[in-house]
Write a structure and sequence with these properties.
The protein has about 550 residues and is an alpha/beta fold. It contains 21 helices and 8 strands. The termini are far apart.
């Protein structure tokens, strides 16, 4: 493995020792993140237990209609991003699988390192390497990113496409500005292709596509050329999105009449969903003032943008510095000293960050989706300080103090970790007398999906209660799908639910004229979280409701 860092040649050329230092850093930091992940424990997050492990299993085994929404609303999510880890987790021991996942995510450091090295202007090659590495290290050591190292949320995994697009543009800046049109448009298309992979694999990453694409509006070329650059980048985004999400959207369109089912169903009006946009507005600010003050608010209370407690001041720091720097640059009060970074790429990178943040604050306000912004913030802070009327010494001294303070005050949280086990999912399989004629019902609202791949494949899993549909729903066609599948089954029923949800699971079964056999209940302990009840279910003689 070699580290290829695009650099502008200066009077002082990089020596072999400088290259060796860069390579050593590019290896050491990812290795450190892998070891940190192993020390933190095995990923046991809620979404992994709900759908990240089940959805690829369902896709690879053609179970979408065999089971009925066992992973609740995420049953409809594109499984493509989760397939590699599912295959890996079934091929090698869990510590190895998660180490490989953490390694992939740690490559964000390498890309940020290369990006910082490409844009910074520091005459001494060794000092430039260390400065770029330090900025990148503070980037990947944030509270949001470290909480996700070695986890299946993938908000940092998709950062690879975003940072790759940014590195491509910065490293080919001269071609974009002064080169032939074909080269400039080709670079914009490739950047869109890279950024589009993020959106194609995880749709909330549209915010970074907005940032990368529309930041071409600040490239110092003619208005027509800017428009063509944006258009070319947009075509690249669409191509990547179609490649990675097109197959799933077409499947949902053919089967449900909504390519992003169930979202925006008030537009598509699929009968297999409520007439609703299904947007999660829980984290959206109530007023415009709250939205404008969001970085200050979540810096003090992170639970307004997520479910876990952590502390990170990277985004709010950039949120304060960037407008001041932009104003100073606009009115010509920028530094009269030698620029600390290439001006054109600096303007473009800061525009990407600003537009991505604005899209995030308008569309989601869920911190997990902003993790790539958190990783970019340290570089953004350094670049923004370079626009202020400060001497080089003060500029770099201030940047060092700010980054050191940010790292010193960082506290990462946890989405759930467990002790390491040999397999990603482990539990004691209950005795099932006749699996060929058995249906397992899922009750309650807690995750069960991670257990399903271990059961005999001939057993269908039908979820009676979920955040998508209820047994008595009158505005969702899936309630009829549930009723028909349950009532047409001829054979044994079992019910699975987390232990605290067993009571409401029994109530859901009663809606279909079924009774939980409490004496038959056994507790299934698993390696990732709370135990589940597994109970036999009997059909009542009386007709169901």
């Amino acid at each position: 493995m070699t580290l290829s860092i695009p650099i502008r040649r200066t009077a002082r050329q990089a020596t072999p020792s400088v290259r060796l230092t860069a390579l050593a850093l590019a290896i050491a930091v990812p290795l450190g993140l892998i070891l940190l992940n192993l020390a933190m424990g095995q990923d046991a997050n809620w979404d992994l237990r709900n759908y990240h492990w089940y959805n690829p299993y369902s896709f690879l085994n053609d179970r979408f209609f065999f089971d009925v929404v066992p992973a609740q609303t995420p049953s409809f999510y594109n499984p493509t991003l989760d397939i590699p880890f599912f295959l890996l987790g079934n091929a090698v021991p869990a510590p190895v699988a998660y180490s490989i996942l953490a390694f992939v995510q740690s490559l964000n450091f390498v890309l940020l390192f290369a990006l910082a090295h490409a844009v910074l202007r520091i005459d001494r090659p060794l000092a430039k390497v260390w400065a770029a590495a330090a900025i990148a290290l503070v980037g990947v050591a944030g509270g949001g990113n470290l909480s996700q190292i070695g986890t299946t949320f993938h908000d940092n995994t998709i950062g690879l496409g975003v940072f790759g697009a940014m590195l491509l543009v910065v490293s080919r800046w001269d071609r974009i500005v002064d080169g032939p049109a074909s080269s400039a448009l080709g670079t914009a298309f490739l950047a869109g292709l890279l950024a589009g992979t993020a959106m194609g694999l995880k749709q909330p990453s549209v915010i970074y596509c907005i940032g990368v694409c529309f930041a071409f509006a600040v490239v110092p070329v003619t208005v027509k050329q800017r428009f063509l650059l944006i258009l070319a980048c947009g075509f690249g985004i669409v191509a990547a999105f179609a490649l990675l999400s097109g197959h799933w959207m077409w499947f949902l369109w053919e089967t449900h009449g909504n390519p992003i089912h169930p979202y925006y169903n008030h537009i598509f009006k699929s009968p297999l969903g409520a007439i609703s946009d299904y947007k999660d507005l829980h984290y959206h600010p109530k007023t415009m003032l709250d939205r404008l003050a969001l970085p200050f608010r979540f810096s003090l209370d992170p639970e307004i943008v997520g479910e876990i407690v952590f502390r990170d001041f990277r985004i709010v720091t950039l949120y304060v510095i960037l407008p001041v720097a932009a104003l100073a640059s606009l009115i010509g009060f920028g530094s009269r000293n030698a620029a600390s970074a290439a001006p054109g790429p600096t303007r473009w990178l800061l525009t990407v960050v600003a537009l991505s943040y604005a899209a995030w604050a308008w569309m989601f306000c869920i911190y997990r989706y902003a993790v790539p912004i958190e990783m970019l913030a340290p570089l953004g802070i350094v670049l923004a300080l370079g626009l202020l009327p400060l001497s080089r010494k003060v500029r770099w001294g201030t940047a060092a103090l700010i980054l050191a303070a940010l790292q010193a005050t960082t506290v990462w949280g946890t989405w759930g970790r467990s002790d390491w086990t040999a397999h990603v999912v482990e539990f004691d399989m209950p005795a099932i007398p006749d699996p060929d004629h058995t249906m397992v019902l899922i009750g309650g609202y807690q995750p069960v999906g991670h257990l399903i791949p271990a059961f005999p494949p001939q057993i269908p899993f039908v979820r009676l209660q979920s955040n998508f549909v209820q047994p008595d729903s009158t505005d969702n066609g899936y309630s009829e799908v549930l009723r028909r599948r349950v009532m047409e089954h001829r054979g044994d029923y079992f019910m699975i639910a987390t232990v605290p949800d067993t009571d409401i699971a029994a109530d859901a079964a009663a809606f279909y004229g079924l009774t939980l056999d409490w004496d038959s209940c056994q507790t299934l302990h698993n390696n990732l979280g709370e135990p589940h009840s597994f109970c036999a279910v009997r059909r009542n003689l009386a007709d169901p409701q």
